[in-house]
Amino acid sequence: AQTVTQSQPEMSVQEAETVTLSCTYDTSENNYYLFWYKQPPSRQMILVIRQEAYKQQNATENRFSVNFQKAAKSFSLKISDSQLGDTAMYFCAFTLVQGGSEKLVFGKGTKLTVNP
Amino acid sequence: DTEVTQTPKHLVMGMTNKKSLKCEQHMGHRAMYWYKQKAKKPPELMFVYSYEKLSINESVPSRFSPECPNSSLLNLHLHALQPEDSALYLCASSRQAVGADTQYFGPGTRLTVL
């Protein structure tokens, strides 16, 4: 069974600074996708970034980038130039690329607070 | 456009009531999902529909009854709920259910059972 671990229940960062959220996962499979989702206090879950396991290049989306270490099964999210609107719960998630793999496996989440 | 809409935003119901939650997407996605989310917890999968057919039921009590009338619409019918069913109910969709694909979430319905 696949598991996702987020070891930081809460984090805080000053506005304009950089913060890194950690995520590790466990799987015996080789082909999968990893995601970071953001859920602000207004509650809508928003996709931040996606990484395909077969791609060696780390995904980036504007101020958001990941450090994907496949051998170490690590998938951290770096937020640069943090903004107040980045305050949210961040969930790391995993899904297999195979038939019947509709399930997203979520970590428990990291609550990020950006302070002015 | 990656919009999934849900109605109502808030719902308060008694344990003897019957109500329904509605989810809609117009992205041509063929997989739709219902999740239950308690405060400060990740979403828990309840049901998956693939091509309008129920493909996964995560042992959800029968007081929750999903329905997929067409490829754009997903309902969750509620009957005889318990106070512990109070939660945020999230709908999501993806282009396909078989094989990995990105799930896009709606804003959710905040359900309170009295």
Poorly predicted segments of chain B:
none
Please report the total strand number of chain B as a whole number: 11
Indicate the low-confidence ranges of chain A by residue numbers.
none
Report the helical percentage of chain A. Answer: under 10%
Features:
A: mainly beta; six-stranded mixed beta sheet; four-stranded antiparallel beta sheet; B: seven-stranded mixed beta sheet; globular
Summarize the structure.
The complex is a heterodimer of chains A (116) and B (114). Chain A is mostly beta strands and 116 residues long.
What does this structure look like?
- The complex is a heterodimer of chains A (116) and B (114).
- In chain A, 0% of the residues lie in helices and 52% in strands.
- Chain A is mainly β.
- In chain A, strands 2, 5, 6, 10, 11 and 12 form a 6-stranded mixed sheet that branches. Chain A has a 4-stranded antiparallel sheet with strand order 3-9-8-7, with no helix packed on it.
- In chain A, a hairpin with an 8-residue loop joins strand 10 (88-96) and strand 11.
- The model of chain A has no long low-confidence stretch (mean pLDDT 93).
- With 114 residues, chain B is mainly beta.
- Chain B is 0% helix and 56% strand.
- Chain B has no helices and 11 strands.
- Chain B has strands spanning 4-7, 10-13, 18-25, 31-37, 44-50, 53-57, 64-70, 73-79, 87-94, 104-105, 109-113.
- In chain B, the strands form 2 sheets. In chain B, strands 2, 4, 5, 6, 9, 10 and 11 form a 7-stranded mixed sheet that branches. A 4-stranded antiparallel sheet of chain B has the order 1-3-8-7, with no helix packed on it.
- Classes of the chains: A mainly beta (116), B mainly beta (114).
- The A-B interface holds A 32-33, 35, 37, 42-47, 50, 89, 91, 95-104, 106-109, 111 and B 2, 31, 33, 40-43, 45, 48, 50, 55-56, 88, 90, 92, 97-108, 110.
